[in-house]
Amino acid sequence: MSEKIKLYDLSKCTGCRACQLACKQWNGLPAKQTYNRGTYQNPPDLQPTTWNIVRFQEISDGNGGVKWLFRHDACMHCTDAACVKVCPSGALSHTKYGTVALDRSKCIGCKECVSACPFEVPRYDPEKDKIAKCDLCFSRISADLEPACVKACPTGALQFGDKDKMLKLAYKRVEELSGDASVYGDKFVGGTHMIYVLPEKASIYDRLPEKPRVPASVIAWKDWLKPLGLLLPGAVLAGSFLHYITHGPKVPDEGNEASKEGGE
What we know:
Blueprint: E1 4-9, H1 18-27, E2 53-60, E3 66-73, H2 82-86, E4 92-94, E5 100-102, H3 112-116, E6 123-125, E7 130-132, H4 138-141, H5 148-152, E8 158-162, H6 163-177, E9 182-184, E10 194-198, H7 216-247, H8 254-263
């Protein structure tokens, strides 16, 4: 089964938020009360019931005017996923498409993934004591359908397909845009399964880390200390067995036994 990628070309996004609405409709996610905060972005951030949002941002165009930046923000579906590494219950796992799925029935609400994710994606739902996030519409792609957000996009800013094909499209688009345009997502955390075509430098976009990485504490525990801890009991057992083979079973020392008998 080939890996799948959702490609998002920010230069084609109009900020219509059709992707937000489609996600809510397909997954049966209710709306939450929000308030005007002086921006068109709504809601203000990802929520347990909002798995993708379009971030609105204004920057200077260099000529005294304003340039709008829109960014579809959702789970990046990392290959080297910190959330999967730290999940103690197996609720988070990789699918055959390379995406990161969430089985909420296994989630114990420990919030380890919330702390570990370099993109700050998983959201804790205190009412249900569970984590929530985008699963890239696993039920749809398993049925050979596009994710709901991709299906709803009217401008072609969102596309979905095989990894190799999507990466070729991304780099071709960057050549067309030129300037500061770049592909974001394929060079870190083992490669992500949501790839951006950024018209501007990554550092300009709000809440987008330039060099996301799995936290060092997660690497130290999951990749080094935990495997070592699992090996130690085996080493003790192996050592005990080797001692038994070479020295035989432990027997009482005859001299000590005689001393005990004489003392009695």
